[in-house]
Amino acid sequence: MAEVLCLIDETPGARHASVTLRHTGKFNAMSRGMWEQLQQVFTQLQREAHAEDPLRCVVVQGAEGHFCSGGDIAEYSDFRFDTGSLRHFHEELVWGGLSAVLACDAPVIAAIEGNCMGAGVEIASCCDIRVATRQSRYGAPIAKLGFPMAPREAALVAGVLGPTLARSMLLEAAVYQAPDMVTHGYLTRVVEGNAELRQDIQQSVARILQLSPSAARLHKQMMREWLQAQEDMLLRQCSTAYDYADSEEHREGIGAFLEKRPARF
């Protein structure tokens, strides 16, 4: 089962939502359908954030002990080797989902446990507050698959991670533990285990529910304006960003992963 679930607590004056990434057996890897669902869910939540009784907070989490392990690589051979379909995947599906999370005017909290890799790092980077268990792991080892992170996705991640950590993740395929990520400022807080994570998230939601929803909306709109200049620059780069689609290294990296063997670059 691959899906993005959304539940809204309709308590008057304290409406809040939980969004769950679920891909059974794949540590919640994002399929193409899940990216579409993510966009649909957050488009609706944005409308709820401007309702008469506004949505005040959203929690994003993964199912079954993990946040998100990346993209569903089993799908990649179907579309990644053609420039047009590759561009559509990143610019329409992936960025459609990520930009919908970024556009949400209610505060968004990421509750992170287990694997938070690739697409998981991207989704978490769209959230305003990131709370994680000590055992959670972070990385974007796509160089092992023979392709780069898409321009807007890389800018998003680097802007939150910082350039030093982003370079290490992308150029060394380095994987980091939660204590490292809080030291570098990526995580807001680290807690010991799953029970502590649930308690911390509940407390964070409770604090936000006591605050002005209009102030939250204005703060988020202001912060998005700061990022707009970078976005305009990256759009100019996207015209050639996916020309690697039919390259030998791209095919070899994905083929080796699917065949469960080391890649030969």
First-to-last CA distance: 34 Å
The side-by-side strand order for the widest beta sheet comes to: 1-2-3-4-6-9
Radius of gyration: 18 Å
Task: Specify the number of helices.
Answer: 9
**Tally of domains:** 1
What portion of the residues fall into strands of 2 or more residues?
15-25%
The fold-level CATH name is 2-enoyl-CoA Hydratase, Chain A, domain 1
Structural class of the secondary elements?
Answer: alpha/beta
What is the element string, with H for helices and E for strands?
Answer: EEHEHEEHEEHHEHEHHH
CATH class: Alpha Beta
Number of strands: 9
CATH superfamily heading = 2-enoyl-CoA Hydratase, Chain A, domain 1
Largest sheet: 6 strands, mixed
- Determine the mean pLDDT: 94
Shape annotation? globular
Are there runs of 5+ residues with pLDDT below 50, and where? none
The CATH architecture can be named as: Alpha-Beta Complex
Structure write-up:
With 265 residues, the protein is of the alpha/beta class. Helix content is 47%, strand content 17%. The chain contains nine helices and nine strands. α1 runs parallel beside α2 (83-103). It is globular and about 55 Å long. The model has no long low-confidence stretch (mean pLDDT 94). GO terms for molecular function: lyase activity. InterPro entries: ClpP/crotonase-like_dom_sf, Enoyl-CoA_hyd/isom_CS, Enoyl-CoA_hydra/iso, Enoyl-CoA_hydra_C. This is Enoyl-CoA hydratase/carnithine racemase.
